[in-house]
């Protein structure tokens, strides 16, 4: 029977801002096992709640332990999945995602975001997270529905790349900031290193497509994942699906090129799942596919395309 594992948010299982090659796994599991991990919010000391009593001791301990690290994201991992080899795909079933803090932060930061030259009055605000009501209450009183997800879901980057900072998403996934990757979704990431090396972090209580000011509502999450090695897929690029849609992911410095990549990937996946020609799949993408801007702030911008499964 598949086993269930739990990883606390302690300093020894966290990285802060960089995926290091050769990092020892924090856990080794069998393919098909489930893992529950407890994350800490991004942003560092400048984003802590102004009431010290509301800052958990584990967050202070993590900041003290990783004071010299580059930040800004706390990420848990890597998790070694036995049997995973380069060229395989790690199937990540997102089973559950929940807020574990009663607050989150939103920031405008120097030289970051979509309009960095127009917003130079830098500030951080804090919203109240009311899990019982399922809302976040902003300082000016507006309540918005919670929709928690992990901004960073990744496999270990190729060792030859050396240390890779967390902000920029790439072929291994990483800081994709895709709000569709909530509980119930399945993400597929290529494996570049033995054991896959799964990471998760950068918890968001809610976010709009675009994440334009540089942050979502940054908070701590608890997530449960089923990790399965797939040797039958051969995907070289992140791909996902929800109960209702296929989802292709484009990541590039150019938003136009990220869009083209998402469309190109959707054509390929539709052809792989149906008897349609490339021309037919391309036309179907025009009729039924939905392009959305994932985020515009992470170095490599993101575009994802959703294709309703009912259209296949």
Compact description:
This protein has 312 residues and is mostly beta strands. 12% of the residues lie in helices and 37% in strands. α2 (255-273) crosses α3 (278-288).
Account of the protein in words:
There is one protein chain. The chain is mainly beta and 312 residues long. Helix content is 12%, strand content 37%. The protein contains three helices and 21 strands. The strands form four sheets. The chain has a nine-stranded mixed sheet with strand order 1-5-17-7-15-18-19-21-20. Helix 2 crosses helix 3. The protein is globular, with a radius of gyration of 19 Å. It starts with a strand and ends with a strand. The mean pLDDT is 97.
Summary tags:
37% strand; 21 strands; single chain; 312 residues; mainly beta
Topology:
Layout: E1 4-7, E2 14-16, E3 18-19, E4 27-29, E5 34-38, H1 57-65, E6 74-81, E7 89-99, E8 103-108, E9 123-130, E10 135-137, E11 143-145, E12 149-154, E13 164-165, E14 173-175, E15 186-190, E16 196-204, E17 221-230, E18 239-241, E19 245-252, H2 255-273, H3 278-288, E20 290-295, E21 301-308
Parallel strand pairs: 1-5, 4-6
Antiparallel strand pairs: 2-6, 3-13, 5-17, 6-16, 7-15, 7-17, 8-9, 9-10, 10-11, 12-14, 12-16, 15-18, 18-19, 19-21, 20-21
């Amino acid at each position: 029977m598949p086993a269930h594992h739990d990883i606390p948010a302690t300093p020894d299982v966290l990285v802060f801002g960089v995926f290091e090659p050769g990092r020892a796994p924090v856990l080794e599991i069998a393919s098909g096992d489930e893992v529950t991990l407890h994350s800490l919010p991004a942003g560092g000391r400048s984003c802590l709640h102004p009431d010290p009593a509301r800052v958990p001791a584990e967050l202070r301990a993590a900041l003290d332990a990783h004071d010299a690290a580059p930040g800004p994201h706390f990420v848990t991992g890597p998790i070694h999945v036995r049997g995973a080899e380069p060229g395989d795909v790690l199937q990540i079933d997102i089973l559950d995602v929940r807020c574990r803090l009663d607050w989150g932060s939103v920031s405008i930061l120097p030289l970051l975001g979509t309009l960095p030259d127009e917003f130079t009055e830098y500030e951080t605000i804090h919203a109240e997270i009311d899990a019982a009501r399922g809302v976040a209450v902003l300082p000016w009183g507006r309540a918005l529905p919670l929709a928690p997800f992990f901004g960073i879901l990744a496999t270990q980057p190729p060792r030859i790349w050396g240390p890779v900072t967390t902000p920029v998403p790439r072929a291994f996934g990483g800081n994709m900031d895709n709000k569709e990757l909530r509980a119930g979704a399945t993400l597929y990431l290529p494996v570049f290193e033995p054991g896959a090396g799964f990471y998760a972090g950068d918890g968001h209580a809610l976010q709009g497509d675009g994440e334009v000011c540089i942050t979502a509502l940054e908070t701590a999450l608890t997530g449960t994942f089923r990790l399965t090695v797939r040797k039958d897929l051969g995907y070289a690029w992140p791909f996902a699906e929800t109960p209702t849609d296929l989802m292709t992911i484009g990541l590039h410095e150019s938003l136009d090129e990220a869009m083209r990549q998402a469309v190109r990937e959707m054509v390929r996946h539709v052809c792989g799942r149906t008897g349609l020609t490339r021309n037919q799949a391309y036309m179907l993408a025009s009729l039924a596919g939905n392009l959305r801007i994932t985020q515009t702030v992470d170095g490599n911008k993101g575009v994802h395309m959703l294709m309703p499964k009912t259209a296949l």
